[in-house]
Amino acid sequence: MAEKIVALKVDVDTYAGTRDGVPALLEDMARFGVTATFYFSMGPDNSGKAIRRIFTRKGFLKKMLRTKAPAAYGIKTMLYGTLLPAPMIGAAFSGVLREAELRGHEVGIHCWDHVKWHDYLPWFPKHLTALELGQAEAQFEEILGHRAVTTAAPGWTVSVDSLEVQDAMGLNYCSDGRGTHPFYPVMDGRRFRTLQIPTTLPTADEILGENDITPKNIHDYYLAQLKEGLNVLTIHAELEGGAIRPSFVRLLERFAAGGIRCITLGEAARQVSNVPACRLFMGEIAGRAGKVAIQGEQVP
Prior knowledge:
The chain is of the alpha/beta class. The protein has 15 helices and twelve strands. The chain has helices spanning 15-32, 53-56, 60-66, 69-73, 75-79, 89-92, 94-102, 114-120, 126-144, 160-169, 204-207, 218-225, 239-243, 245-257, 265-271; strands at residues 4-12, 37-41, 106-111, 150-151, 173-174, 184-187, 190-191, 195-196, 229-236, 261-263, 277-283, 292-299. Helix 9 packs parallel to helix 10 (160-169) and helix 12 (218-225) crosses helix 14 (245-257). The protein is globular and about 50 Å long. The chain starts with a strand and ends with a strand.
């Protein structure tokens, strides 16, 4: 029987998630000798502005209520960028980024402004897309002393321009979409050369409250979904490092007991071969409001 491997991808979206969630995850992962790839938001936390998705994204309010997002993220986070000023994340927590890397984890760029990218990327002119990633890269290099080798799009939101900018950055790989296996993206008929390693499993906020899945049994769901070979699980510092932290610890315990190996996405990228080109498009998936980048059929 082939080995089951889990590449852990950690999206860090907010100021509070960087301050509190990441240190918690570093502590828990150290207990089990697990390494992951952390993607940090580098600029302002404008989480409060996401409230407009109630009016622009079908199902957003239902998801917020189902996952108890206000309690999970905290009232201050829900007000940043509206009633409260948007705090700068990377500049405030440079030590958290350095600590993650010192502990052997891979560190990459999530974005500059998470809400801005997630909500408006399709309407960005190309120079603004480049500016968003360029600002994040500059802050990343200032903090860690080297360039980033990987990025992951907020909300799995991509465009032809964002893929082009990633190619120009000379990245080793990206993790921008949802799919089944590593591939080179083809979008709107254009081929791009930066390897994509898609998330293969649903995220906690997509499945909690559905089909009797709760924080107490979500680890059983994930264990049942693992396939032989590479699985990619995206967790969030604000959830698995905070509101449902005990759930994630139980999952790590079960991984250890079952001999399931956890790796970084960088390790996964170095192990792939005979990578196909596949279509990448924006579409809908269960449990998530709005469209995400989805791996499509293989392209000759």
